[in-house]
Amino acid sequence: xxxxxxxxxxxxxxxxVEKGRSPATIEAYSRDIRALCDWMxxxxxxxxxxxERDFERYIGLLRSSERxxxxxxxxxxxxxxxxSFLVEDSILPSDPSARLKSARRPxxxxxxxxxxxxxxxxxxxxxxxxxGLRDRALLELLYGTGVRVSEAIGIGLENLxxxxxxxxVTGKGSKQRLVPIGGSLREALQRYLGPGGRPEFANARRxxxxxxxxxxxxxxxxxxxLIVNKRALLAGVDRETVSAxxxxxxxxxxxxxxxxxxxxxxxxxxxxxxxxxQLYTAVSVSSxxxxxxxxxxxxxx
Length: 301
Description:
The chain contains 12 helices and 3 strands. By secondary structure, it is mostly helical. It folds into 2 domains: 4-88, Tyrosine recombinase, N-terminal domain (DNA polymerase, domain 1); 115-294, Intergrase catalytic core (hpI Integrase, Chain A), CATH 1.10.443.10. The chain has a 3-stranded antiparallel beta sheet, with no helix packed on it. Helix 6 (130-145) runs antiparallel to helix 8 and helix 10 (244-257) crosses helix 12. It is globular and about 60 Å long.
């Protein structure tokens, strides 16, 4: 009988080779599955004998720990995929997760920042140090193009085309798309790439990654989060309302509010389905109603 660690390793390798899953997806699946394995070890349960009741008990513990339902649903999805693989590979005789249903995940509306707050954060990032120029270029990119964090940190110098004013980004499922370089983003990128910016980072010539950390390596997701939190704090904006993903929400919502076609926004953000982009339309309508109620003299009868 294969060990639990061996079964997990085989599954992750299958996801990489056969399914072409991204490193971020592999990391999330591994984290969810290892959490179950740790719990099984504490409960003295074996992979070969875990049953439906054991699995339901584990999911119940996740829900009682005040984790968001979206997080629990993702864990269930990760574990179902693993157990299904183990059954198909004849490692397990049956799937203990087969009958458990995920709670329906609510489609919550994104919460964009007001334009004034976005501008305040961007304008407060005015240092001319290498890290200051990097941070300004990064935030201009997040807001100016709406790219995901994983896409931003995956951009290489070879993906920039200043002549055509385009950036090639690689999104979910390794799908590539072009996003435009606006005026503010162009200026921020050129200052960052010029003297006193990126060339001043250690080992800058050894990597083609656009955004570098203090050691000269590619900037990580955690590094982006730290930059966003730092810049929000310095701008006097509540850090609880700001994240890298909020810049993406804000980009889409503000474009729609200013009359952009929803299909254009869908293409810009790399949404596979326009239904996802339509969430931002709902945000724009909510803002419209709020402003109407606040401003129109006959709005309240």
